[in-house]
Amino acid sequence: MIRFRSSSIRSLSPEMKCTVRLLDDSEISCHIQRETKGQFLIDHICNYYSLLEKDYFGIRYVDPEKQRHWLEPNKSIFKQMKSHPPYTMCFRVKFYPHEPLKIKEELTRYLLYLQIKRDIFHGRLLCSFSDAAYLGACIVQAELGDYDPDEHPENYISDFKIFPKQSQKLEKKIAEMHKNEFRGQSPAVSEFNLLLKAYSLETYGVDPHPCKDSTGTTTFLGFTAAGFVVFQGNKRIHLLKWCDVYKLKFEGKTFYVFGAQKEKKAVLSFHTSTPAACKHLWKCGVENQAFYKYAKSSQIKTMSSSKIFFKGSRFRYSGKVAKEVVEASSKIQREPPEVHRTSITQSRSSPSLNKQLIINMEPLQPLLPSPCEEEEVPLDEGIQLPKEDEISVPVTSSSPVKDTGENVDLAIEHEEKMKEEPLTISELVYNPSASLLPTPVDDEIDMLFDTCPRAENEKDDTDSFEELEADENAFLIAEEEELKEARRALRWSYDFLMGNIEVNAFVKSFSRLLLVGLGLLLFVFPLLLVLLESDLQISFLHEIRQTPEFQQFHIEYYCPLRQWVACKINFIRDMLGSF
């Protein structure tokens, strides 16, 4: 068992046990001290794997309030953990590679493959039915090898839990592709094909943070190599590229994203469940922006959560950026280390362990109305529900299913009645190319008036067609002029409100600075009076009085000022006495 010791005098402090769960659910235990920093633990795990491309990975832990955190490498582990030892953490992919083709070593690709497999299993990687079958076939080929009718029974896919909700239709499609399309592929090739397919999906690398937008709608925020993304249900509704995001901020439970799109400013606000969740979201955004946006780590600046002086959290990403990691990978020259793969049956842990691993990690799910809401919310205002023959119906048991006559028909009929939310969304409902909606900007102010209904003509039927047409044209012209005036008034109000927001922020910052200055003055002024006028023989006061600088200030400035003030007071007193 490894023990990390510090070179300081306090190295004799008690040791604490720390257990790290790896991507295949195996565990490594070690003993740490109070001064041991997070980087030592990360290096220990990477040395265990003989991993050189380690900047993509990190260690995650969950505090007693069920809030997730990434272990900061430059801080003491003991100071970061809010629970009592022994500590339990997880080794995970922190930054998903922007281009899997540029990963140099097979070992790194295998660890990324394990992370993608976990994302699929926990419902964080959304895909269509055909993509789900392809991903499942890649996993089966990598774990089992070529199809062998002597070793693999008819429903052998049912033995493996690849997706959280797995239908017989999906299992048959996976088995068909495994038999016919993946024969001859080595585990490394199958794993690489899975990475390429996962990289093409919208939710690749998305670690969903549940929150609510300004309208109270449940949304999931994520950070990818492309930028900041927002999902509602299974659809991506916002994408701000990192080059267009110029500030991330949080205040309490509210998270702000300041960006620009089409040369216009946009401010998005979201509300989390707790202030700790909001701070974690902010730190994840700062780290991902620094990792993917900058060309050199020397360009990274310390970020503050607020503009207000002497207030707010400050945080700086201290690792390498993506370009530096790719450059370092290209310079690796060594014999590739041996990859010890774990079979799919061995890598699955008990239900209790899986429950612990996904604490506070809600998967992206389609927004399907509950039975009590179906009568209140019309279908045309929500997300289109998939047809029953287009979704993969979940199978609740992981044991093999025998395809025999009436039992299969009854099982399928029972599953169709359950209508559970599927993981695999049909291609008609979830189309990646059609799911991107633009971030709302100022243009929507103009769009408010694009669909104004035309007023009906209220003239008598005895009027001629020419008179009706002339009146209608005049009315439309007048209405258009009114709409233009309304647009100008609304745009002026919008600009005025945005200006007030900036002014209010400046006034708040200035007022806080003024209060801090007054507080310091109220503290310093009495101290000066005690030093200059009192005869208190306190050691530190006596030492200050004996300094040359203080004596010079007392003789050259304070004494003349006191005499001048005394003269003025006596003069005013004499003037008042004469009256």
Figure out the total of helices: 15
Gap from first CA to last CA: 94 Å
CATH superfamily of one domain: Pleckstrin-homology domain (PH domain)/Phosphotyrosine-binding domain (PTB)
- Which residues form runs of ≥5 with pLDDT under 50? 4-12, 345-469
How would you describe this protein?
This protein is an alpha+beta fold. Among the domains are: 16-93, Ubiquitin-like (UB roll); 209-318, Pleckstrin-homology domain (PH domain)/Phosphotyrosine-binding domain (PTB) (PH-domain like), CATH 2.30.29.30. Helix content is 41%, strand content 14%. The chain contains 15 helices and 15 strands. It has helices at residues 38-49, 77-80, 106-121, 129-144, 168-180, 187-199, 275-293, 322-330, 344-347, 351-357, 405-418, 443-447, 465-533, 539-545, 548-578; strands at residues 2-3, 16-21, 27-32, 57-62, 68-70, 87-93, 209-213, 218-223, 227-232, 235-241, 245-251, 254-261, 264-271, 303-304, 314-315. Strands 10-9-8-7-13-12-11 form a 7-stranded antiparallel beta sheet, with helices on one face. Helix 3 crosses helix 6, helix 4 packs across helix 5 (168-180) and helix 4 (129-144) runs antiparallel to helix 6 (187-199). Residues 4-12 and 345-469 have low confidence and may be disordered. One of its GO terms (biological process) is actomyosin structure organization. Residues 342-351 have a biased composition (Polar residues). This is FERM domain-containing protein 3.
What would the keywords be for this entry?
PH-domain like, Ubiquitin-like (UB roll), FERM_2, 579 residues, alpha+beta, cytoskeletal protein binding, single chain
